[in-house]
Amino acid sequence: MKIRKNGVRFALAASLTLCALPEAFAAGTAAGTDINNTASVDYEVGGINQPDVSSNTLTFKVDRKINLTVAEVGGASTEVVPGSSARVLTFTVTNNSNAPMDFRLVATQDAISATTAFGDTDSFDVTAPLVFVDVNNNGVYDSLVDTATFIDELPADMPKTVFIVSTIPAGQINGDTAGLTLTAVAAQSTDGTGAYVATATTLAADAVETNTTSTDNAAFVDTVFGDVAGDTDGAGDGRHSDNDEYDVVTAAIVVVKSSTVVSDPFNGTSFPKAIPGAVIEYCLDVLNSGTAAAGSIVLSDAIPANTTYVAGSIKSAPTGTGSTCDVGTGLAEDDDNADGAEVDGATGDFGATAAGTVTVRADSIGASSRFKTTFRVTVD
What we know:
5-stranded mixed sheet, Immunoglobulin-like, single chain, 26 strands, 6-stranded antiparallel sheet, 3 domains, mainly beta
């Protein structure tokens, strides 16, 4: 704008200059960048332009805004089996700050009966949950490679994959749930001007806000927390959290044994009684009420005292309602421990696996399925 006063025309201008081109981050200009501002006056005297006059230069440093996001990866729970180890929950930690940052990582377990990440109810604690960083950036936990326990010098705008690794107690049952939370805490080292100081291979101290009750110092890089609330932390606390869960998916095995008197020496098959010489048929029903198949089934039953095994009487897959067996039904096994003469996937033997014992093997019992077998003895 030009103005004339007392025969002098003035042109007023202001310019904004930077000492160096700043890095462009999603969070804005890099912390510590000097922003320089100088005003100038262009004017004329008697219609003749005169040299510009510049003001003093004002400089201030861009402060550090700390912001981060922790996010569960996959959008679903992790299914586990009781007694399993190195079970993994996967997260990303993203540095949304305008500066590089270390991040301290903490895994915590939900309280029993708390609502978990995917709407279930926490019912157990895992054993010794540990946190590891994806060192080789392949998104998969590698126990021999991913040994770092904190994020070191993560650049602005960059994500890092992090794993919670746990052991599942052996006693858990189908449908049990364990909820866990990953919290990332911003950490940094600064010098006397507030400038960030890298601490390669060493976790810096937790970041703290600076000069929160004083006006901005143009020569100092302040730290300001700009994070939003996470699952278990508040807004503006220099940390963020997200939760995930383990769901136990396993077989739930119940074995029911019943018996039927098939015949006796006096009554035959007409209302027989369990007298000496009577034939008894035992029914063994194995129910898997769980949501995972049970494999490598081995069913053992020692012949009771005062009875004698009836040779060739082992049968698999008899018919019957519920846990019962229809007498005399099923596929005959051959008393050895091989399936060479059979095609049903089950083997039965008497005395070959264990003395005086009926042993029946099956490949698997599917979820919500059952396996039955029968054998006979006579009363001594």
